[in-house]
Amino acid sequence: MLGEFEYLILSAATRLREGAYGAAIRQEIEEATRRGCSIGALYTTLDRLETKGLIKTWMGDPTPQRGGRPKRMVRVTANGIRAASDFYLAVRRVSRGVLWEVNRMALRP
Amino acid sequence: MGSEPNGSPTVKRTCWRLVDILSGMLDADERQAVRGDVAESGESIVRATGDVLGLIVRRQIGLWTEWQPWLALLGVACLAGLSLSRIAFRFNVDLGQQLMAYYTYGVHFGTLLTRQQDMAWLLCLAIALFLWSWTCGFVLGSLSGRAVWLTWSLFYLMVLDSALVRLVLSGNVILRAQPVRLLMAATLPLNPATFLFSLSALWGAFMGVRRRVLPWRAAYVLASAITTFTILVTWMGGWYETAHEVWSSGAWHGVSWTTRLLPFVVVSWPVAYLLAAANRQQTTSAKETT
Known about the structure:
The complex is a heterodimer of chains A (109) and B (290). Chain A has a single domain (4-107), classed as Orthogonal Bundle (Arc Repressor Mutant, subunit A). Chain A has five helices and two strands. Chain A has helices at residues 4-16, 22-33, 39-51, 78-95, 100-107; strands at 55-59, 72-76. In chain A, strands 1-2 form a two-stranded antiparallel sheet. Chain B is mainly alpha-helical and 290 residues long. Chain B folds into two domains: 9-63; 68-289, no CATH class. Helix content of chain B is 80%, strand content 0%. Chain B has ten helices and no strands. The interface between A and B is medium-sized, with 20 and 23 residues.
């Protein structure tokens, strides 16, 4: 079973397709979660996902916007898609019948 | 690189230079990717420094999930370091006595041995100290990898200070120097033995990180040299014991050769690891060629 942050990375990388690399994935996660995403957390999780065979990474070409430095490109493997899909379905199943918006409203004074 | 922090251009440049230096602790590929990400995201110097530091800390912690840095820390830095510290201390005392007697009175310090015997003992001990320090440094670098800065620092402090700490704790030495002088003595290689040790151990660690394994032939030459000098210093150490026994008419009982050999064996164990690693690599490459 994936962790929450692993799922976020797999989803962001899948959405970005050919443009999935460190900084872009980080931006995608920060926009989606409205929280900061540290480079340390991102890179160590990328390593873990690669070890599990859920993603493949390689060094891309250097670009001028990055001061001539290469990107760490990311591609989600078939196993990665399967794991993210399983996670998503599990979240959907466990959330069935739970109305978060209603519960949130109830919390308001 | 990124958005600039408030302050003078010199401060900004220095801050970004600091981030560059910090990222030097990462692997080459990762360093480039991280520097690029920081440049592209345009984040502040504070966040960039925090990000790079955070990754370095995570990577360093990750290194300690393997057994190799632990073996380097416990086996080399602590165990061999303790023995090496005692040997270096003995070398300093023996050399210091001779130098002081020669420069103050122009005579040979009376150790009950001849001048030639004392010279031979000091020379062999210096060469042995160099070889042990280099080998310990190499194995430390080879096992620790990117954690070498930590294991080497602990090894260095262990060799510099553990013998003195033992003497202070046992009440044989009372420290009266000013704190600054004490701190300098505890952290800087200010005497011949620690200077010799620091240079060779640093060189060894540098080579160990770069090469990881010594070539088979070089490993055997080093092992033979260490064995030879270990036997020599064990044998020569006996000269003092015999001389003191004779001088005291049997009242003094000299230390046995096995007791004299023990610290030298403890400090020599890294050469066994070095030989095993070289043998393994030789066997692997022989299999690959066939």
